[in-house]
Write a structure and sequence with these properties.
The complex is a heterodimer. In chain A, 32% of the residues lie in helices and 15% in strands. By secondary structure, chain A is α/β, with parallel strands linked by helices. Chain A is extended and about 100 Å long. In chain B, the strands form five sheets. Chain B has a six-stranded parallel sheet with strand order 2-1-3-5-7-9, with helices on one face. Chain B has a six-stranded mixed sheet with strand order 12-11-10-13-14-16. Classes of the chains: A alpha/beta, B alpha/beta. At the A-B interface, α1, α2, α3, α4 and β14 of A face α1, α2, α3, β16 and α10 of B. β25 of chain A pairs antiparallel with β23 of chain B.
């Protein structure tokens, strides 16, 4: 294409110099080439739109028109499922390979109708639920239409219900899939396994190495880390809208809603009811319903008729008892109603048990213990019940609600195994959104006390107050635990003084020149910081004594995840203005400390620079104010903990600058700071600051005790 | 000229043809694929008749589950017992739960006989069990049995190999096909293939084995334990090697490889021969073992040689706060029932080794969290034989008492499953540790708990004053009086009138009664008081507020003004019962630990549980108490004081029992914000605290 374009531009320049007969010849040639090019373009790019439009017609097709495949009677049958299969033995990870998005690619075979030699259907072509499931996969990020790039293959042969398929022929149909290869990397979905009389707990269709997402696994058939246990979908959940019910007492303590229970179980339950009366309700199928009322939506106790599944919301605990199969669709209904399921099915692998913590949302009772159920359940405190109800509802909303959520959760579990470094965490799987929102995961959660020998790095932010800076350096260098001093030179117009002019101190002193005069330079995680503890200190803070600083460091060591500072400040809610207010009066509470001199962990520098929410960082740089408030917000937000104010000090007052400390200046200052708080609170979406009523003093502070025996005698100036 | 032009044209034409035949496809892909992809992607068709499709199961069938089934539940259970034995054992089929019903979870150890020498490691295991609170010497009440035969080393080339175990165990009347037995094993099989053969039939016994191969692992029944050397301490154990959270976690190598092989295969010492080489993305380097602790950033364990997996390595990498990248296919991770390894290790497929390098370095925070989590796991479950054994027992207990078992969250969050006792509660909010992660907050009220030892004779007695003072606090929810006196308590009318309910509990005359988890305690916070304590309401309020607001997992003390035995030691109730130095506001949770974990006093357990400064100083005189509210007089304690030396003995005794000194020094105390500041008293909220 490039070549032809070049030719076109050069062409006309050549033409006038040519002879006429040649001219015609050339023009003809030109047009041929041009036409050819256009044709190329058409040929190269048209067919795909043609293809997609033909797709469009395919989409209009009905399920009945799918191609028919005849299976010869002697076509191969896969081996039975291999119980020893694990991801590392039966799964070909190389197909998945490296993937920047860390998503497995899933291919779905096209739908076909399989018939045996006599033209008899092997199974229902596809059920509504399986179609929904495949649609969900196809719409998800996991989907690919390229069979060569796929990592996981999902056959379109519907085996959700084993009773609707012919086992041998279905197996033959599986074996002739184009990429079957002993079932490697194939995923089958099955919800109702086994058939009469013995009801196996896993799909009976021979499937060789294929993964099985099955509802109703027992511990003997479930291949841990390979299969995925899924729920039995309840179509009722799509039909009935049950709003979430808030906490509070419910009418029945225990409810059993299942029909066709084994008489032995039923007599156990009836005995339970006889013992405990009204609080236990055992429902059964209605025998005398009028015509036209669907029996699946009604339950009866003697002559009383109840709406199902609405009645489940009236109970605290709902029984999910095994039937012929271990997995029961009623589990889904129960969770939807926010009722805590009592699972009585020995050896049953609960749905998605690989990732879901069922102990927080259900009670599992061994079949033998059924008669003691009531007393077992009564020992659960009300607070816990409420939490379990909330958790149950959340499980339903996230993983049971539709075929889509079931399909996606299954694929996510397999995805997590293949890309473990991008896996979803326990919290992401299990915590309901409300908890996720309010919980705090402290990045420094391990209660370590850093060794004292490590010391701290002091960072002095300075612009041009050299004299005061030198005094600060001299003062700070007297603190025993100081291990390094870092001066951040924020003045681009002026170079820092020569090396010889700096005060001589016992620790290394390093000057970092910045490229821009920004307040956030103070919180940059410089490579020069080698200690965990950082002391941020302004270049005019000369009033802090060595004892005060050293004590501050000792306090920080005991609370390395907090901001430890000297003067405290408070945020208050202004009821008249309906917004936050900054307070620097001498109050009984503190919620912030000034970072004019404060100890904190170096990690917060990293967070401030790279992880500060919203535009706070730029806002601070633009306004040249409130960087300390931003830091207070940040630390309180990630740790969920309050600041620590040490020593009685109330303000940093430099002796020389009392004159400009005018009242009017103070007022505008307060207004600005209040504005900062309101701005930050809106960016964080909440008010993370915590209020406390205490400060840290040395143990013997102001005690009647000889001063010279105290570790930190020189503390106490305000 | 013309021929040249002709050639030019022909060249153009040819190149165009070439482009057409070969290049077109590529160009199309490059330029148009991304734009056209959405249209090109062939999705699952939207069938026109999809809403008419049949459901996978008839709703009626779904709800009644295939109609009535004939097999009775009892018959099914009985037949199940017969089918699923030995290699297919599960708790339901191979464990007799009824043995545990009457006496709870009790463990019996077959008495060790002199003629059967037991290896050092096995002796440590047995000692740990005998010292645990589950131990019983009566086989009648036992729920779980431990053999006295050393089964740790089942390499028949080893000198510690015990022969003829089969005959021995058949002779045990309690053996009963191994039902309710727990068998420990560290090494099995021998060179060259290290099969998992134990050399005897364990029958229906639970196998707690190191380096378990998934294939032989009976899920929910067996337990995979970490491999430990014979030098592994009995209790206490070394702290982890992560002392600081360096950010960004800088280590020399991004990825280090640590594999293990058995060089000669005989004896357990040579088994420790580990091989490690650092490995940096294709540029292989060899490094000797000792550099392991400091060098690698990520410890990759890869098993190149034998079937046995490198477990000691797992240990060292955990202790060195590296991130183990577990690439051992087919290996059941230690305590996989309880521990969520994905929080502290990248558990990957050996075949995807190269992908692992994609992970670290990209973002710092997960590595920081991994390091801390690894350290926590080491200290909570692995650092001593006692912890390993205890974890094993607790996992089994959780299976037996399913209702009172720990959710996975408790196992994987500080302070860990061994300290979060499900007997106390299985509700996260009842523990002081999880409020932050769970987004909840402790209740703002406290229960005042007063232990009374002397009868009430006059109205001016300190206990009555104390009750009044405490009840005036707005944060006090209830007052409990533990009556530990021989004389009966005064009738209701003699107690002072209080705004909050006052309950009298009758206790035995034991000091540790104070820390019994009384069900009457309805709040999270507990203010524990002695009857002689004199407190002002202001002091109580401070403590109460602090307790609620501060950090529920730490103890707040309000030392009162008694001269003498202040010394800085807290309650050491076993020996000195007349006047405890302080009155800790403990969280309700620490109470069950008291009687649960044998005799240690509360303060210590708290220290273990939270590892936060509790501020008790050993040398006893230069610093007083942390968390103290001011007003405590100078702690003038002479070391000649007999009570002082008693307490010193206490300390040493407890430190020995724990295996290490769990107490933490502190240099600070918490005062009200305006404490002793030169401002108007009217400004101060807790003005009475400043009176000496």
């Amino acid at each position: 294409m490039c070549a032809s374009a070049k030719y076109n531009t050069r062409g006309p320049a050549l033409i006038p110099r040519m002879k006429t007969k040649h001219r015609i010849y050339y023009i003809t040639l030109f047009s041929i080439v041009l036409l050819g090019l256009i044709a190329t373009g058409m040929f190269q790019f048209w067919p795909h739109s043609i293809e997609s439009s033909s797709d469009w017609t395919v989409e209009k097709r009905s399920v009945h028109d799918v191609p028919v495949v005849k299976l010869p009677a002697d076509s191969p049958i896969p081996e039975r499922g291999d119980l020893s299969c694990r991801m590392h033995t039966c799964f070909d990870v190389y197909r998945c390979g490296f993937n920047p998005k860390n998503k497995i690619k899933v291919y779905i075979y096209t739908l076909k109708k399989y018939v045996d030699e006599y033209g008899m259907l092997v199974s229902n072509t596809i059920s509504r639920e399986y179609n929904e499931l495949l649609t969900a996969i196809s719409d998800s990020d996991f989907y690919t239409d390229d069979v060569n790039r796929a990592c996981l293959f999902v056959p379109s042969i519907d085996v959700l219900n084993q009773n609707t398929v012919r086992i041998k022929e279905t197996a033959q149909a599986l074996a002739q899939l184009s990429r079957w290869d002993r079932g490697t990397n194939h995923l089958l979905f099955n919800m109702l396994p086994g058939g009469p009389p013995d009801y196996n707990t896993a799909l009976d269709v021979p499937r060789d190495r294929a993964l099985l997402a099955g509802g109703g696994f027992s511990t003997w058939t479930y291949r841990q880390g390979y299969d995925v246990s899924i729920p039995v979908y309840s179509p009722l959940s799509a039909e009935v809208e049950l709003p979430e019910r808030g906490p509070g007492p419910r009418r029945y303590f225990i409810l059993s809603s299942q029909m066709a229970l084994h008489p032995e179980y039923r007599s156990d339950l009836e005995a339970l009811q006889a013992e405990n009366g009204e609080s236990v309700l055992i429902l059964d199928k209605c025998t005398n319903l009028s015509e036209g009322v669907p029996s699946v939506r009604k339950r009866c106790h003697k002559h009383q008729v109840f709406d199902y599944p609405q009645v489940l919301q009236e109970a605290t605990f709902c029984i999910v008892l095994r039937g012929a199969r271990l997995g029961q669709a009623v589990l889904s209904d129960v969770l939807q109603a926010g009722c805590v399921p009592i699972v009585i099915a020995d050896s049953y692998i609960l749905p998605f048990s690989e990732v879901l913590d069922w102990k927080r949302s259900s009670v599992v009772i061994p079949e033998e213990k059924m008669p003691e159920m009531y007393s077992i359940l009564q020992s659960i405190p009300q607070r816990q019940i409420e939490e379990m109800q909330r958790q149950a509802r959340w499980f339903w909303e996230a993983y049971f609600r539709s075929m889509k959520s079931i399909a996606l959760a299954t694929l996510q579990i397999i995805n997590d195994r293949i890309y473990p470094y991008a896996a979803m965490s326990y919290e992401e799987w299990n915590d309901p959104p409300a908890v996720k929102w309010s919980s705090v995961s402290n990045p420094l959660f391990l209660p370590l006390i850093p060794p004292q020998s490590q010391g701290f790095t002091a960072i002095v932010l300075t612009y041009d107050r050299v004299e005061s800076l030198f005094r600060v350096i001299t003062e700070v260098s007297k603190v025993p635990s100081l291990s390094k001093l870092l001066v951040v030179w924020n003045n681009q117009n002026k170079n820092p003084p020569e090396d010889s002019l700096w005060p001589k101190i016992r620790v290394p002193l390093k000057v970092v020149k910045t490229t821009e005069n920004k307040l956030s330079n103070r919180f940059f995680p410089y490579d020069e910081i080698e200690t965990e503890a950082v002391l941020a200190i302004d270049d005019d803070i000369i009033m802090l004594t060595s004892d005060e600083l050293q004590f501050g460091y000792e306090v920080w060591r005991e609370f390395p995840d907090r901001l430890v500072g000297y003067p405290g400040r408070l945020h208050l809610w202004d009821h008249e203005m309906n917004k936050w207010k900054y307070e620097s009066e001498w109050t009984n509470e503190v919620s912030m400390v000034l970072t004019g001199a404060a100890f904190y962990h170096k990690y917060f520098n990293y967070l401030y620079t790279y992880k500060m929410p919203g535009d706070i960082k730029n806002w601070v740089d633009a306004h040249m104010n409130c960087e300390d408030i931003a830091m207070n917000f940040l630390v309180a937000n990630v740790t969920g903990k309050a600041v620590i104010k040490v020593t009685p000090r109330k303000k940093f007052k430099c002796p020389e600058c009392t004159a400009i400390d005018g009242l009017s200046l103070d007022q505008t200052h307060m207004v600005e700071r209040s504005e900062c708080i309101n701005k930050f609170a809106s960016v964080f979406g909440t008010m993370p600051l915590k209020v406390v009523e205490h400060r840290a003093d040395p143990v013997l502070y102001k005690d009647d005790f000889p001063e010279k025996l105290k570790s930190f005698p020189n503390i106490g100036s305000l | 000229m013309q021929t040249r032009k002709k050639y030019i044209f022909i060249t153009f034409f040819a190149s165009w043809l070439l482009l057409f035949f070969f290049g077109g496809d590529q160009i199309r892909r490059l330029a148009f694929l991304s734009r056209k992809k959405a249209a090109v992607l062939k999705n699952w068709p939207r069938w026109t008749d999809r809403s008419f499709l049949k459901s996978f199961a008839d709703p009626e069938e779904l709800q009644s589950d295939g109609g009535l089934h004939k097999q009775s539940a009892k018959a099914r259970r009985a037949s199940r017992m017969n089918i699923y034995k030995h290699s297919r054992c599960r708790m339901e089929t191979c464990f007799d739960f009824s043995r545990c019903e009457k006496h709870g979870f009790k463990v019996f150890v077959y008495p060790v006989e002199r003629e059967d020498p037991v290896s050092e490691s096995y002796l440590k295991i047995i000692t740990s069990i005998e010292e645990s609170r589950y131990y019983t010497s009566n086989p009648e009440e036992a729920c779980l049995f431990i053999l006295n035969i050393d089964t740790l080393d089942r390499d028949h080339l080893s000198i510690q190999y015990v022969h003829d175990i089969n005959d021995k165990i058949q002779g045990f009347p309690l053996w009963n096909y191994g039902r309710n037995h727990l068998v420990f094993n560290l090494y099995s099989g021998t060179w060259p293939n290290y099969t998992e053969d134990l050399g005897f039939d364990i029958g229906q016994a639970i196998l707690a084995k190191a380096s378990f191969y998934v294939e032989n692992f009976r899920p929910g029944f067996d337990i995979s334990i970490p491999l430990f050397s014979k030098e592994h301490p009995q209790k206490g154990g070394e702290r982890g090697w992560l002392y600081q959270n360096s950010v960004p976690p800088k280590k020399k190598y991004m990825l280090a490889f640590k594999g293990k092989r058995y060089l000669t295969g005989i004896g357990s010492d040579t088994r420790n021969a580990t091989r490690s080489c650092s490995w940096t993305d294709g540029r292989g380097k060899q490094e000797s073992s000792p550099g392991w602790e400091t060098g690698p950033g990520v410890g990759t364990r890869l098993n190149g040689w034998g079937l046995m997996r490198a477990l000691v390595c797992c240990f060292s990498s955990i202790q060195a706060a590296c991130i183990p990248v577990l690439l051992s296919n087919g290996w059941e991770l230690p305590f996989s029932d309880a521990i969520d390894w994905s929080k502290s290790a990248i558990v990957g497929d050996e075949r995807l080794l190269l992908q692992v390098t994609q992970r670290p370095g990209a973002c710092q925070s997960p590595i920081l969290a991994f390091q801390q989590q690894t350290q926590f796991l080491w200290e909570a479950y692995f650092s001593s034989v006692e912890k390993i054994v205890q974890t094993t027992l607790e996992i089994i207990k959780d299976r037996i008492f399913h209702r009172e078992s720990r959710p996975k969250f408790l196992w994987n969050t500080l302070p860990g499953g061994l300290l979060a006792l499900p007997e106390y509660s299985t509700h996260l909010g009842d523990f002081p540790f999880y409020h932050l992660q769970h987004g909840s907050s402790p209740s703002g009220k406290f229960t005042a708990f007063i232990r009374a030892v002397s009868p009430v004779v006059s109205l001016s007695q300190p206990i009555l004053k104390l009750i009044q003072a405490v009840s005036r606090s707005q944060h006090c929810a209830q007052i409990l009086v533990l009556w530990s006196c021989e004389k009966p308590p005064p009738p209701r009318g003699r107690w002072p009138q209080t705004a909050v309910p006052l309950t009298v509990i009758h206790g035995r005359r034991k000091v540790s009664d104070r820390f019994f988890p009384y069900s009457a305690i309805g709040t999270d916070a507990v203010l524990s008081l002695d009857e002689h304590t004199s407190l002002s309401t202001s002091e109580v309020r401070r403590g109460g507020r602090g307790g609620g607001r501060w950090d529920a997992a730490t103890q707040i003390r309000t030392p009162h003004g008694r001269a003498g035995c202040q010394g800085g030691f807290t309650s050491c109730p076993r020996i000195s019962h007349w006047d405890n130095g302080g009155d800790p506001t403990g969280h309700c949770f620490y109470f069950p630990l008291g009687p649960g974990l044998m005799p240690p006093p509360l303060q210590r357990i708290t220290a273990v549980a939270t590892r936060l400064p509790k501020g008790v100083h050993c040398s006893g005189w230069d610093r007083s108490e942390s968390w103290g509210v001011p007003g405590s007089p100078s702690p003038a304690v002479s070391s000649g004081n007999p009570r002082f030396s008693q307490r010193q003995d206490c300390l040493n005794q407890f430190a020995a029992w724990f295996g290490y000194m769990p107490l933490v020094h502190s240099q600070l105390r918490l005062d009200p914000v305006l404490f002793k500041d030169q401002v108007s008293v009217l400004r101060k909220k807790y003005r009475h605290l400043e009176k000496p």
